[in-house]
């Protein structure tokens, strides 16, 4: 070709997201014109091409390190055949590039990495048979657990702080030894639990006179009154445990979260299975046990084969945020007084039952909270729903009525919520801007408002309005 020749070149290429040619781009050229071949996902060995299929390991590396979410990987598979054909890579030659990328990202997660091959296969099957779905389960669990981050837990009489390095500080009431310092004396300032040195704590739960701590190794430590209903510490309710004690009955279960109700305790395994202690009489939690039973019992029913990413315990009921192929759902079980189970009635549920109203609202739940008599959930789009007993306006709907199914808190429609927490008759919501809103019973300034008018309204509260903290 004459090197002095100039002109325009027509460059035509394929968009790998559609596998269809897009419009031809004409580029004005002042340099010599060269004939370029059409670029394809796979190519046909014609010189000058750079097909994806010739460098699958590079593509896999890019996908794995780009922090794509499972939906992105699924979209790649749906729109380009290259990403859904077998990649012929270890550890499974039949997996596609997208599935291998999801598996690699799963292996990077702290919870998944130590699992055996059999445990990994079981988790994959439980999640729906795809590593993309396993990745979604792991990411959802991380968002709920706040692993690697500092935490503050407010109990009914004492509080717990966990640092990002795993140190634990407690303060407040200590009549049952629930602070873990070896005494029953109150602590007005946060004091570190020295007996836990060398053990990294990643999660904590506080209940009436009880405390539970979860280590990064999946071990559970309990102390205070009726810790886990452990008969090994004496007849239930007659002996106090004032320093953290390892819960031996859970030593074969890798626990990632614990939740304390008034009559029962629940723990969540890294595989997404829920176990409960006590309160098994009359099958209230799907099993028949004695009140001081020391063995964990798996929560039977609908959640036996559905992985759970978060649990929340109220006074006498349990919520579970579950990860299904179709999306995130919330299940409830236990006492239905006040409509706090969210099923449109006030009847008890002995086995977990999905809260269908959240699906009708097209709400993809990301976090759940269980108060004593009311519950709340935050959706991916930032909406907040509450239900249960509305005393003192703790539901935020402008009244004190009970709601037996989740209702959107319209007063928060102008914010995007990212977290919610519930107490006896109080609710706190955190927005994506870092603002905190509260509503419910304002007795003893428990809602944290400086504004005198807001405090007075909350104290008398029958209107259930949402107030912004003034920090």
> What characteristic shape results from the CA principal axes?
globular
Contiguous helical run count? 7
**Structure summary, number of beta strands:** 28
Strand order of the largest sheet: 5-6-7-8
Q: Structural class from helices and strands?
A: alpha+beta
> What is the beta-strand fraction?
25-35%
Low confidence ranges? 1-43, 227-237, 453-463
Q: Mean pLDDT, nearest integer? A: 80
What is the terminal separation in angstroms?
Answer: 74 Å
Main pleated-sheet profile:
4 strands, antiparallel
CA gyration radius, whole angstroms: 27 Å
Which percent range fits the helix content? 10-25%
Give a description of the structure.
The longest helix has 15 residues, at 131-145. Helices cover 15% and strands 30% of the residues. It is α+β, with helices and mostly antiparallel strands and 471 residues long. Helix 1 (56-65) packs across helix 3, helix 2 packs antiparallel against helix 3 (97-107) and helix 3 (97-107) packs parallel to helix 5.
List strands and helices in order, with pairings.
Blueprint: E1 8-11, E2 14-15, E3 20-21, E4 25-28, H1 56-65, H2 70-79, H3 97-107, H4 117-127, H5 131-145, E5 151-154, E6 158-162, E7 168-172, E8 187-192, E9 201-207, E10 210-215, E11 220-224, E12 241-246, E13 255-260, E14 265-269, E15 274-277, E16 297-298, E17 308-313, E18 317-324, E19 327-334, E20 349-354, H6 356-360, E21 365-370, E22 374-379, E23 384-388, E24 403-408, E25 417-422, E26 426-431, E27 436-440, H7 452-459, E28 467-468
Antiparallel strand pairs: 1-4, 2-3, 5-6, 6-7, 7-8, 9-10, 10-11, 11-12, 13-14, 14-15, 15-16, 17-18, 18-19, 19-20, 21-22, 22-23, 23-24, 25-26, 26-27, 27-28
């Amino acid at each position: 070709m004459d090197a002095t020749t100039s002109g325009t070149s027509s460059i035509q290429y394929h968009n790998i997201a559609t596998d269809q040619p897009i419009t031809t781009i004409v580029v004005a050229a002042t340099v010599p014109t060269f004939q370029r071949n059409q670029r394809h996902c796979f190519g046909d060995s014609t010189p000058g091409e750079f097909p994806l299929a010739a460098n699958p390991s590079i593509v896999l590396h890019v996908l794995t390190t780009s922090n794509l979410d499972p939906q992105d990987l699924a979209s790649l598979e749906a729109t380009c055949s290259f990403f859904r054909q077998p990649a012929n890579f270890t550890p499974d030659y039949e997996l596609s590039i997208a599935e291998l990328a999801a598996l690699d990202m799963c292996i990077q997660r702290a919870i998944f990495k130590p699992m055996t091959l059999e445990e990994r296969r079981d988790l994959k099957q439980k999640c729906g048979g795809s590593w993309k779905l396993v990745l979604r389960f792991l990411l959802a669990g991380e968002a709920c657990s706040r692993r690697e981050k500092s935490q503050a837990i407010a109990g009914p009489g004492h509080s717990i702080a966990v640092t990002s390095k795993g140190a634990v500080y407690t303060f407040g009431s200590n009549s049952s030894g629930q602070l873990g310092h070896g005494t029953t004396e109150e602590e007005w300032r946060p004091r570190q639990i020295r007996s836990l040195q060398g053990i990294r704590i990643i999660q904590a739960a506080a209940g009436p006179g009880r405390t539970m701590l979860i280590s990064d190794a999946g071990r559970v430590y309990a102390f205070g009154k009726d810790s886990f209903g452990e008969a090994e510490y004496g007849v239930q309710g007659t002996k106090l445990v004032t320093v953290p004690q390892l819960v031996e009955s859970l030593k074969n279960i890798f626990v990632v979260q614990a939740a304390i109700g008034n009559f029962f305790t629940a723990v969540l395994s890294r595989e997404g299975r829920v176990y409960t202690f006590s309160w098994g009489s009359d099958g209230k939690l799907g099993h028949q046990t004695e009140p001081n039973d020391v063995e964990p019992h798996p929560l039977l029913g609908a959640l036996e084969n559905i992985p759970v990413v978060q649990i929340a315990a109220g006074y006498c009921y349990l919520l579970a945020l579950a990860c299904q192929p179709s999306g995130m759902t919330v299940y409830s079980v236990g006492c239905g007084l006040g409509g706090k189970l969210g099923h449109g009635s006030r009847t008890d549920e002995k086995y977990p039952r999905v809260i269908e109203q959240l699906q009708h609202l097209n709400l993809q739940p990301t976090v759940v909270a269980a108060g004593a008599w009311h519950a709340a959930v935050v959706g991916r789009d930032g909406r907040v729903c509450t239900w249960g007993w509305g005393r003192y306006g703790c539901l935020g709907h402008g009244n004190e009525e009970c709601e037996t199914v989740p209702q959107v808190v319209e007063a928060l429609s102008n914010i995007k919520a990212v977290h919610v927490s519930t107490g006896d008759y109080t609710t706190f919501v955190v927005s994506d801007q870092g603002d905190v809103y509260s509503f419910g019973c304002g007795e003893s300034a428990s809602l944290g408002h400086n504004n005198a008018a807001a405090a007075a309204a909350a104290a008398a509260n029958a209107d259930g309005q949402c107030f912004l903290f003034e920090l």
